[in-house]
């Protein structure tokens, strides 16, 4: 009898191992799914060796790692220049993994185009590799000012994917238009704004005529006007873009475009909204009247339904004090 028992127990061992193996496969499968879901960024070469990583136009989530925005990188003859570092630590790693599908060259510099989370929350990931982080004085001030409030909201929205994120503002700053040469490539950092936030920093490649505009330009998606936005100055900042005469603009959100595309989806909307709201204020109307503004001309833009009413309220609130 006891021999049989031993045999039965011995028979259990392989099936236990098999079960463990299956559970292991299941966990590995989950992890693989996670990795797959963590790669919604779409890689596009907008000029020779100049790449855009186009993020999804949805809210931050555990799946998109708060990389719901565009990023960019340029491969020079000896290194890589990265534009914006992602919305979480995991998001920063995801951006690097996309770069590694193109080149093994080291990243030499990270530029932050703005103070919104996805522009800089991944800085620490690169700083720990000894990579410099650079932005403008105004953008850095915005990063410092809104760090805690943005940590609160982004950590809640990204849940488990927030793990390890410790947002560090850029450590080096420029206060005016600054030319840099990196790996033989000439770039210009151009501080503008306040616009969408307290101060955006444009990255201009004069040889390629490519502009990384950060959140100064949105395409295909309705731009968001928040309490930190200054829409009158945002409109004025477009003059800087026009003077550059870019052939390609990589916007903060949406597909790469040209100047007329940027004007259609961003500039025209800002001008339209300010003139409509201005009319109501001149007529002595209350804020509630903004719901009567017919914004349907821009209803082709993604997230229109969720955002257009709030945008109008925000413009009204500010214009009352202009
Ligand atoms: Zn943004």
TrEMBL record:
Keywords: Hydrolase, Membrane, Transmembrane, Transmembrane helix
Pfam families according to UniProt: Lactamase_B
GO MF term set: hydrolase activity
Domain Metallo-beta-lactamase residues, every copy: 68-253
SMART domains (UniProt xref): Lactamase_B
Presence of the UniProt keyword Hydrolase in the record: yes
Transmembrane segments: 12-32
GO process annotations (BP): antibiotic catabolic process
Keyword Transmembrane belongs to the record: yes
Family to which this protein belongs: Belongs to the metallo-beta-lactamase superfamily. Class-B beta-lactamase family.
Protein name: MBL fold metallo-hydrolase
Record organism: Amphritea balenae
């Amino acid at each position: 009898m006891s021999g049989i028992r031993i045999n039965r127990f011995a028979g259990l061992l392989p099936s236990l191992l098999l079960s463990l193996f299956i559970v292991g496969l299941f966990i590995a499968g989950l992890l693989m799914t996670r990795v797959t879901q963590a790669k919604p960024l779409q890689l596009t070469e907008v000029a020779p060796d100049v790449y855009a990583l186009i993020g999804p136009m949805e809210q931050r989530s555990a799946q998109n790692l708060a990389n719901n925005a565009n990023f960019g990188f340029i491969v020079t003859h000896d290194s890589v220049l990265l534009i914006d570092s992602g919305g979480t630590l995991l998001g920063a790693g995801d951006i690097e993994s996309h770069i590694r599908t193109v080149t093994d060259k080291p990243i030499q510099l990270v530029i932050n185009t703005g103070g919104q989370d996805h522009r800089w929350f991944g800085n620490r990931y690169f700083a720990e590799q000894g990579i410099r982080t650079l932005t403008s004085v105004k953008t850095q001030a915005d990063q410092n000012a809104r760090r805690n409030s943005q940590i609160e909201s982004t950590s809640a929205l990204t849940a488990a994917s927030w793990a390890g994120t410790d947002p560090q503002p850029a450590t080096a700053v420029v206060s005016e238009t600054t030319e840099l040469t990196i790996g033989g490539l000439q770039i210009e950092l151009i501080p503008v704004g306040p616009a969408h936030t307290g101060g955006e920093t444009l990255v201009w490649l004069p040889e390629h005529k490519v502009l990384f505009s950060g959140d100064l330009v949105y395409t295909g998606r309705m731009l968001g006007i928040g309490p930190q936005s200054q829409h009158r100055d945002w409109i004025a900042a477009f003059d800087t873009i026009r003077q550059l005469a870019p052939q390609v603009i990589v916007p903060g959100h949406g597909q790469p475009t040209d100047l007329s595309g940027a004007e259609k989806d961003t500039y025209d909307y800002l001008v339209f909204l300010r003139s409509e709201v201005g009319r109501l204020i001149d007529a002595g109307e209350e804020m509630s009247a903004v719901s009567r503004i017919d914004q349907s001309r821009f209803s082709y833009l993604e997230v229109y339904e969720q955002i257009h009413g709030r945008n109008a309220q925000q413009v009204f609130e500010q214009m009352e004090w202009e």
